Amino acid sequence: DIFTRLLEAPLENGLQPMDDAVSVLTEFSSQAPLTLVTARPTKDPIAQWLKTVLGEEVDRRENLIATGKHDGKFPYIKNAGLNTFIDDRAPTCIQLAEKGLQSIVFSQPWNEGKHGLPSVDSWLGIRELCLYNDQTL
Predict the structure, then answer these.
(1) Which pTM does this prediction carry?
(2) Fewer Cβ in 10 A, N or C end of the chain?
C-alpha cells in the first residue's frame, strides 16, 4: 500500500528527496539538460513531484522518461544519447553494462554485495564523480 501511494501520489504522501539531491540536480541542470529515466508506470505523478521539489526553472531543463518497467531501460537511454547511467537497482545497472553503457550503482542496502560495478553512496558522490572526474560522464 505504501509503495503504491508513493508511486501514484508522491506529493500528497510526503515523498522527500534524498540529501543533497536538489542542489546537485540544480547545479547539473545549469550545465546541461537533465534526463531522468524511471521505471514508474506513469509519468505525471513523479513529474509533478519533480517540478515541486526542483522548481520550475530546473523542470524546464529536464526530460523525464517513464518506462513502466525496470528491465528495458536501455533503448530509452540510448535514444536519449546518454553514455552513463546511475541507478540504485543493481540488476538494471548490470543489464546496462552488459550492453556497453557505463553503469554506476547508487549504493543502498538492497544492492550491497550484488554487483562488481563502480558505485556512489550519495548525491555529493555523484556530483564529485560527474564534475571532478578525469573522464567525461
Answers:
(1) 0.86
(2) N
- 106, three cell numbers: 547508487
pLDDT averaged over every residue in the chain: 91
Contact 28, 82 (CB under 8 A): no
CB 99 within 8 A of CB 76: no
List of long-range contacts for 39-43, beta carbons under 8 Å, 24+ apart: 39/66, 39/67, 39/68, 39/69, 39/70, 39/73, 39/89, 39/92, 40/7, 40/66, 40/68, 41/7, 41/66, 41/68, 42/8, 42/66, 42/68
